[in-house]
Amino acid sequence: MTRRGIIHRGMFPGSFYLANTAIFRYINGAEPLTTGGNVQVCLLASGSKGNAIYVETAESRLLIDAGLSAREIGHRLNAIGAAPENLDALLVTHEHRDHCRGLGPVARRWNVPVHVHHATREALPGVGKLEHTVEFDSGDAFCLRDMEIQTVPITHDAVAPTGFILSTADGNIGIVTDLGLATRLVADRFQKCRVLILESNHDEDMLRDGPYPWHLKQRVRSRHGHLSNRESADLLRQLHWEGLEAVFLAHLSETNNSPQLAEACARQVLGQQGNSSARLFIGSQHRHSDCFAW
Ligand SMILES: [Zn+2]
Ligand SMILES: [Zn+2]
After folding, report:
1. Cβ distance 28 to 288 under 8 Å?
2. Which among 30, 68, 61 is positioned nearest to 46, based on CA atoms?
3. Tens-of-pLDDT digits for all 294 residues of the chain?
4. How far is the CA of 12 from the centre of ligand 1 (A)?
5. SS3 for 155?
6. Which of 31, 197, 207, 283 shows a CA-CA span of 20 to 30 A to 42?
7. Three-class SS of residue 293?
8. How many angstroms separate the alpha carbon of residue 28 from the centre of ligand 2?
9. How much distance in Å is there from the Cα of 185 to the middle of ligand 1?
10. What is the pTM of this model?
11. pLDDT at 125
């Protein structure tokens, strides 16, 4: 039973028992989220035109980034059986528009507290007045209802880009997108996640031969740009853990990548790790992903 036997660091009494007895399910996004399972994860949107992730536990409903309009975020939440008015918190990874476009309206319309790095708060582009913000510093950890949130600094061309590890009684969810380089810190901190949301932005050949101007190709490839399929697969290799059950590939470029290429890279690694039963989800700009629930 080691596969689902996740011993938490002690925040949640009884978590080992919970993790072992949790019924592992996979539901299609069209089904309501409330039909069982303690934890659900869904990419509402993913890519350079807008990003938002939804995570629900027994006691918490979180949005990570709000890169679509509030109206569209509301629609997509409704489509998976969730409700924007029930959101408990909004976590912000960084200030780029594709992660913050709907931040102000989401926070105000549904009265959602915004958890944001203090430097990112200063750099947010015209989000308007935010009634309730909770600022964190690089590397901080904090509690949100039944979760502990660890922040992990990453490299990207933003003021304080951040990855998150959401620790729940039923295992950890690692979220790391918009990074130019998988640093040693990232490879260290994101170990033993039951669910990983990893950037798999571009195919290196497609980027090289594609239509982007030279300076933009350089930016994407740089240490402060985006992770390629190969680099994402390398990170996945370093994060080898038999307890990994689902991988969401995120922030795919519509110009310099294809879902098939990204998926093939990740599948190869999972196969080499003897974990071909792990679920693989590909984020899209145009619709929410299927949900992973357990
Ligand atoms: Zn982005
Ligand atoms: Zn970015």
Report:
1. no
2. 68
3. 323 322 233 233 323 223 333 333 333 333 434 445 789 999 999 999 999 999 999 999 999 999 999 999 999 999 999 999 999 999 999 999 999 999 999 999 999 999 999 999 999 988 999 999 999 999 999 999 999 999 999 999 999 999 999 999 999 999 999 999 999 999 999 999 999 999 999 999 999 999 999 999 999 999 999 999 999 999 999 999 999 999 999 999 999 999 999 999 999 999 999 999 999 999 999 999 999 999
4. 33
5. strand
6. 207
7. strand
8. 29
9. 21
10. 0.88
11. 87
Residue 36 CA neighbour count, 13 Å, CB half: 9
Q: Is the dihedral of CA 217, 222, 226, 228 positive or negative?
A: positive
Interval between CA 54 and ligand 2 midpoint (Å) = 18
Ligand nearest to the CA of 156: 2
The stretches of 62-183 forming alpha helices (DSSP H) are 70-79, 97-100, 103-109, 118-123
Q: What is the pLDDT of residue 24?
A: 34
Ligand 2 (ion): residues with CB under 5 Å are 96, 178
Structure-block tokens of residue 106: 């989401």
Q: Ligand 1 centre and the CA of 222: distance in Å?
A: 14
Tokens linked to 56:
């629900």
Taking the centre of ligand 2 as the mean of its atom positions, its distance from the CA of residue 7, in whole angstroms, is 34
Which domains are seen in the chain, by residue range?
A: 15-293 (3.60.15.10)
Query: 235 burial class (0-12, 13-18, 19+ CB within 10 angstroms)?
Result: buried
CA 17 to chain CA mean position, Å = 26
Tokens of residue 109, six digits: 């319309």
Rg, Å, the chain Cα set: 18
Ligand nearest to the CA of 51: 1
Ligand nearest to the CA of residue 49, numbered in listed order: 1
CA distance 136 to 33: 30
Centre of ligand 2 from the C-alpha of residue 98, in Å: 7
Centre a 10 Å sphere on the Cβ of residue 247 and count the other Cβ atoms it contains. Answer: 28
